Amino acid sequence: MDILVCIKQVPGTSRVEIDPETGTLKRDGVRAKLNPYDLNAIEMALALRDRVGGTVRCVTMGPPQAAQAVMDAVYMGVDSGVVISDRAFAGADVYATSYTLAQGIGRLGAFDVIFCGKQTTDGDTGQVGPEVAELLDIPHVANVTRIDEIAAGYCDVCANQDDSEARLRVKMPCLLGVDSDANTPRQPDAGRKENLAQDDVVSKIALNDLADTDESHYGLGASPTQVERIFAPEKNTAREMFEGNAEQMAEALYRVLAENGFVSGEETRKTDQ
Amino acid sequence: MKTDNSHDLWRGIAVFAQTQNGDLHDVSLELLGKALELARVINHPVYALVIGYNVGRSAEKLVSYGADKVYVYDEPCFEHYTPEPYAAAFSDFINEVRPSSILVGTTSLGRSLAPRVAARFKTGLTADCTLLDIKENTDLMQIRPAYGGNIMAQIITPRHRPQMCTVRQKVFKYPKPARDPKGEIITKSLPAQALHSRVEVLDVLERPRDVDIMHERVLIAVGKGIKSEKDISLIRDLCTLLDAQICCTRPLVEQGWFDAKRQVGVSGRTVAPELILTLGVSGSVQFTTGMRGSACIVAVNSDPAAPIFDIAHYGLCCDLYEIVPLLIDSLKPHGAV
């Protein structure tokens, strides 16, 4: 079975800088890590390979140093990975990212199942997976918690919905978004870390490798959404700060809670007194 | 499918009105209320799109709350959500109505469906907007926290129509019924081949509703100020005394101390309780976006510069380990009286 996992390198910290001109993230010089939600997708992909055999590849879009995210996936057991990278892709929004990924995946060949994490910790949208599925014209299921059965041409999966859990039969090829509590991701393998070199397991794809090489279809310029301005959230200036030592503050807090009806039995006590 | 970028051909603010067992999801009416506000600014009509099975009463309710036209796709195959037939109905609606903007609730269904439709129309989709406004030129100003950091972004979709965004439940207020509803209901159908799905629903298990922090009256939120997992029992005592449920910030979920269902914030739930008491929560935008609609916000944090104090109504700059036992003491006698 040919399995693919879409992964992303995200900032290792939430203290990130924004480019004031483009409103996009400054990635240079920021410590980066593999998106934590992708670990569940990688785990489900590897578990599927363990069950039915085949290969697991991963794909990411980003600057050349995103190869490190591929290596992290490879250390967990992914066979190899591809970085889709080109200056032309920079500043892409959800649609332009999904288009680039779909183009890149098309270049890699055919897959039976494509896994994605639930969302990323930097964009926080969770929208790229379903958009990629639409652009590849394959079905998708979000919030998958497990794969029950794999048969010729389809798989049965369990997926979380808001107030329910659905069992679904999905025709392959398909894209599965993996829920964050679906599994416990395995640890990187020390042996693989020691023996595998980046040049042997990571390859690169640039604009000229894609079926659509028209630069105007990628990156910031091809993004339907634009960040018009960025600003600090508004502050509440009417707040009351309690003063004094801990006892006095606790007493003041108790009074506010009681006056606003959050202390059960307070009315009773008042009448008793 | 090619998007026509001549904006004048796209008129109206549309709401995808999600239903559950034939009834409207609360977020649908919250979005309708906002759509009515936005439409008034540019003098556009308001549309609602209903996809489901036996959803007649939902369509009527949307009219009674002021929708000008409600488009209904009512088929047995829509009883349970599957992406392709829903996207087919959604696309049919867009092609016929050509709305300028479309608002979708950020439910698990909305998160799955909206991107599929947006990609089909090669247009923008802004997730989890917390504020919406509109310009005279019909550009929708979509405001959301960005990059999980302490920053808000205002996003527009200047060259594409429809403009699409998602909004969570409890971000906008539940509207009042229209005084003089005049809307009409338009029933649509699709050819059988458009309803073909490569995802088949085998069965759906309603989950017993466990505590949903979204529906609680009082919440106590804990953050990184909690030093060890065993200290949570102290907070649970306070929860019992205040009849509150406990919720938390993202790092505590990542540490494995809490289930993700207890997480407040951009990557967790949005809550708007009558009271939220935050203990040792610094107040990143990631977190505050999910709770700033709360009626009363009380913040306890030992760092006077913590951004949580910027949105709090009452602030206590001190160690939660000092305050919580004192508060528990003052609350306790009541149970004993």
Give a verbal description of the structure.
- The complex is a heterodimer of chains A (273) and B (337).
- Chain A starts with a strand and ends with a helix.
- Helix content of chain A is 30%, strand content 26%.
- Residues 267-273 of chain A have low confidence and may be disordered.
- In chain A, helix 3 packs across helix 4 (128-136).
- Chain A has helices at 36-52, 67-76, 94-108, 128-136, 190-195, 198-201, 246-259, 266-272; strands at 2-7, 9-11, 32-34, 55-61, 80-84, 113-116, 140-151, 154-160, 164-171, 174-178, 202-205, 226-231, 240-241.
- Chain A is globular and about 65 Å long.
- Chain A has 273 residues and is α/β, with parallel strands linked by helices.
- In chain A, the strands form 2 sheets. A 9-stranded mixed sheet of chain A has the order 9-8-7-10-6-1-4-5-11.
- Chain B is an alpha/beta fold and 337 residues long.
- Chain B has a 7-stranded parallel sheet, with helices on both faces. Chain B has a 5-stranded parallel sheet with strand order 15-14-16-17-18. In chain B, strands 8-9-10 form a 3-stranded antiparallel sheet.
- The longest helix of chain B is centred in the first third of the chain and has 17 residues, at 26-42.
- In chain B, 54% of the residues are buried.
- Chains A and B meet through helix 3, helix 4, strand 7, strand 9 and strand 12 of A and helix 3, helix 4, strand 7, strand 9 and strand 10 of B.
- Strand 12 (226-231) of chain A pairs antiparallel with strand 10 (152-156) of chain B, so a sheet runs across the interface.
